[in-house]
Amino acid sequence: MNQRALFLQHVAQTSAAPLALEICAAEGCYLYDTAGRRYLDLIGGISVCNMGHRHPDVVAAIRSQADQYLHVLVYGEFIQSPQVNYACELSKFLPASLNTVYFTNSGAEATEGAMKLAKRLTNKTGMIAFNKAYHGSTQGALSLMGDEYWRNAFRPLLPGILHYDYNDQAVLEAIDDNIACVVMETVQAESGVVRPDADWIKAVADRCRESNCLLVFDEIQAGFGRTGTRWAFEQYGVVPDILLLGKALGGGMPLGAFIASHERMQAFTDQPVLGHITTFGGHPVSCAAGLAAFKALNNSNYIAAIARKEQRFLQQLQHPSIRAVRSAGLWMALAFDSFATNKKVIDECLANGLLTDWFLFAPECLRIAPPLTMTEEQIDEACRIITAACNRVA
Ligand code: PLP
């Protein structure tokens, strides 16, 4: 059997139509497959590879850490300098109230940890989440997910979770003595790059403060420069009580985190002791890789260049079949009339060496979330391929 047949037979599948490119190498903004084809990567592993694939500093950090130690003990017992150094570096670039990092393996686990921390700190169990939100596939995170089609098949889920639309004023009244936390993405990813109103976020934050309810921002996709600032919440002037990070956090290695104040995070040390445990969370190689990627981001002018690169995309992505474009920095959703049209454009792009896809809750929208390192020439190449695909199929 060839690799494709073995993949379909022995690796658990999650859809009937995987992309199934057989990748043999990745470098910068390009992926290479075993058929000898090169693809310009317009989605960066879904907002993971913000510094491009295999950034040399990240690869060097992985090699160096692998020469020292890999897993040594469960989370929280030994002083592991990759964790300490990364937590310190993150806190340098975060508000003072977000100074303590709990490292997990994934974004979903970061969500789970935040939900537990909110329950523990408030002694309440209700939560508010939003329609078309995705926070992970584990059962707690799934309970927050804003779509009945995906939730319903797995009931019973966590009780007491209310879902609203962004900008719904009813949220303000719903935050009461039963609600432990409000969990929201600062820019909603899988609905196709949707921003809530800044005034509404501020009102939600005020209401949370009045009601002993924690505000949790999920920046698992939006963080690390994606939206044009290091953290998207900077654009709203609101600091969350708990911040969720993942994806680009590990520089291409598996890593998630929930971040809160030192005082709040202490809740996991007592009643019960070991209130949140993980074997591999904060793996030293992942932390070393993530720290190298974060330093590469901060020591460069990539964030400063995002607005210019965003404009370069927007100026060129004009075509009668593109009905609307929503964008937040180097993150865009191009809306077509239907999934059928979008899929044809995506397939045509792939055939011409450009990798993109659609959004979970916005299948009619084409996803643009490239490495932040993408050059202006590569942006032009991507736009040429997309508009040529539109001319041919849309
Ligand atoms: N939150 C958001 C906004 C996400 O996009 C994702 C993953 O796509 C998650 C949480 C879950 O992260 P992970 O897949 O690492 O569990």
How would you summarize the topology of this molecule?
Elements: H1 3-10, E1 23-27, E2 30-33, E3 38-41, H2 44-47, H3 56-68, H4 81-92, E4 100-104, H5 107-122, E5 126-130, H6 139-144, H7 148-152, E6 161-164, H8 170-174, E7 179-185, H9 198-210, E8 214-218, E9 242-245, E10 256-260, H10 262-265, H11 284-298, H12 302-316, E11 324-327, E12 332-335, H13 339-351, E13 354-355, E14 358-359, E15 362-368, H14 376-393
Helix pairs in contact: 3-11, 4-11, 12-14, 13-14
The chain binds pyridoxal-5'-phosphate.
The site of pyridoxal-5'-phosphate has 15 residues, from helix 5.
Chain-averaged pLDDT = 97
In this entry the ligands are: pyridoxal-5'-phosphate
Rg to the nearest angstrom? 21 Å
> Which sheet architecture does the biggest sheet show?
7 strands, mixed
Write the H/E string, N to C: HEEEHHHEHEHHEHEHEEEHHHEEHEEEH
CATH superfamily of the largest domain: Type I PLP-dependent aspartate aminotransferase-like (Major domain)
Short note summarizing the structure:
The chain is built from 14 helices and 15 strands.
Question: What report would you give on this structure?
Answer:
By secondary structure, the protein is of the alpha/beta class. The chain folds into two domains: 3-55 and 301-393, Aspartate Aminotransferase, domain 1 (Alpha-Beta Complex), CATH 3.90.1150; 57-298, Aspartate Aminotransferase, domain 2. Helix content is 37%, strand content 17%. It is built from 14 helices and 15 strands. The strands form three sheets. The protein has a seven-stranded mixed β-sheet with strand order 4-10-9-8-7-5-6, with helices on both faces. The protein has a four-stranded mixed β-sheet with strand order 1-2-3-13. Strand 2 and strand 3 (38-41) form a beta hairpin. Helix 4 runs parallel beside helix 11, helix 12 packs parallel to helix 14 and helix 13 (339-351) crosses helix 14. The model has no long low-confidence stretch (mean pLDDT 97). Residues 46, 106-108, 111, 134-136, 185, 189, 218, 220-221, 246, 256 line the site of pyridoxal-5'-phosphate.
